[in-house]
Amino acid sequence: MGIDHVIDLDCAAKRALGPEGIGELVKCRSRAETVLAIARQNGDARPAAEISFQVAVQRPSGVETTDVSVQALFDRAAALDGHRGGCAQCPANGGQAGGFGCYRSIAYPIEVETEQWLWSRLPTDSESTARQFLSRGVVDFGWDGAQAAQMRAQGGTFFESTSPISGRWPDGFSFDTNQLFHIMFQVGHLGSTHCLMLACFLGMLPHDLDPNILRDPNRRGQLLAMAAVPPQRDQVEQMADFLRSIVMSARLEAELLIDG
Fold it and tell me: How far lies 18's CA from each of 13, 91, 96, 103, 192, in Å?
């Protein structure tokens, strides 16, 4: 269970399989590879068709579990193979060796370290462009973090920490990570303009950026082309991948699809 995100840049694979279909098939392949690797590490030399495990699915009536073989998942994911070649030169692939890098995922629960890392990327200067845009957006769009607060109240399912990180700036503006998750994951699919704003809020673009640069397509494109998020570790790297997808969606003027 986690947050899936897909850069919705048109391609033959998306036309044939659909963005959701690509995500599901990539997950099938990843699960099969993980289970097979664990089996081999434990000395299990059986063919993939003879190695099975349980998959839990949340239904309206409750959680249902089914047995599935590793080979069955590999067979389902085989639909990706005919489209893999198109990923090599696609900017949304992000250099992913196996292709389909336009699809990524962040596992639940969101760990404390991940939340702290995101918080550290927010602007500290009340007068900076990013902070001014952030405070106006909270008022204009009602980013109150209510849904994230409800998720956090459900024990450790979605968040490791029972309370958000919060802060107050010298000008009196207050903000917390429930509101940040609202902006990132709970406004529906993210348009390229929203992604551009997140790139400002979270430091992929300079916090003190001249607003006129954002209005100039050429200068904006140059800045986004240089924007980078350094490699991280463990779940923080999954979140870093999401920030890279934000930048790429803003660069390509493509929607970033969110499920989770």
Answer: 7, 18, 19, 12, 20
Helix, strand and coil in the chain, % to nearest 5: 50, 15, 35
Whole-number Å distance between alpha carbons of 136 and 67: 50
Residue 234, token pair as written in the block: 């463990």
pLDDT in tens, 114-149: 999 999 999 999 999 999 999 999 999 999 999 999
Alpha carbons 221 and 174: distance in angstroms, whole number = 31
Q: Which of 97, 83, 103 is nearest to 16 (CA)?
A: 83
pTM for this predicted structure: 0.86
In the chain, where the domains are located: 2-106, 112-259
Kindly report the CA angle at 163 between 162 and 168, in degrees rounded to 5?
170
Q: Is the dihedral of CA 215, 218, 221, 227 positive or negative?
A: negative
